[in-house]
Amino acid sequence: xxxNGRNGFSVYRPDMNPMGKSxxxxxxxxxxxxxxxxxxxxxxxxxxxxxxxxxxxxxLVRWQHPVRGLLSPDKFLPVAEKSGMIIxxxxxxxxxxxxxxxxxxxxxxxxxSVSVNLSALQxxxxxxxxxxxxxxxTNNVPPEKMILEITExxxxxxxxxxxxxxxxxxxxxxxxxxxxxxxxxxxxLYLQSMPASExxxxxxxxxxxxxxxxxxxxxAMIIELAKNMNLNxxxxxxxxxxxxxxxxxxGCNILQGFYFSxxxxxxxxxxxxxxxxxx
Length: 279
Ligand code: C2E
Ligand code: CA
Ligand code: CA
Ligand code: CA
Prior knowledge:
The chain has 279 residues and is of the alpha/beta class.
């Protein structure tokens, strides 16, 4: 129990049901968080499998809560989704990621890209394409360096509308990545209709690579297929040197995971060395 002043005593239980008081409270606090700038973006590098060179970063949202501390997305994104606030959170993420990208580019790392996760609800927003384009133009960063990550499940929710919006964005040069590939139910045929430039192999596959022969063979087939479709193939959740070696051998050209770096705030990031051309 805790004395919360105005309302007397209340009990916080971590197992409260989704519609419980703590969730309603979290929702109200999330509004405040947006207004008071409590959200943060952490970044995790994406490395070229061959050279090890950092080619970009994935932005992952956090909430620096004044009382509860640093909250990971699973603690507040479900509430954001349920309340529709994910639209505002998503817009903040897009703008913040573009602002950070502009900083890296201004420092001379003009080849870096930033990857941003989009939720299914954002695709129900008719203005989504405009929101993305606004974030890019406001921060004066090239659309080619923006990668939007969407999961198979998101894409399958309203495939026509999703493809319509992604096609507009692609025409502007923005890249699309299919996230968590292998966990959903989409057909390979469907994948072909997506205007994607990148496929992210889900961590579940990466984890099994040494244990499960069938999974590994399936993965090899997926990679072969994605290559034929001219997609970049990212393996996520790479934690060991062994996984790094095997995934590279299997043909993944981009690797991401704790083996290289955990997601960290921008001030703790290791940036690629800037190639300074001799005068
Ligand atoms: P995701 O997009 O699949 O992101 C990868 C998650 O795996 C991240 O968790 C990351 O910290 C974690 N990860 C990275 N490398 C490793 C590894 O080697 N081992 C293990 N065990 N985990 C690794 P995080 O940051 O907690 O994010 C969880 C999910 O929340 C994301 O999964 C994404 O679906 C969602 N999310 C995060 N940021 C945003 C956002 O800005 N917008 C939306 N809509 N969703 C977001
Ligand atoms: Ca992602
Ligand atoms: Ca993922
Ligand atoms: Ca995931």
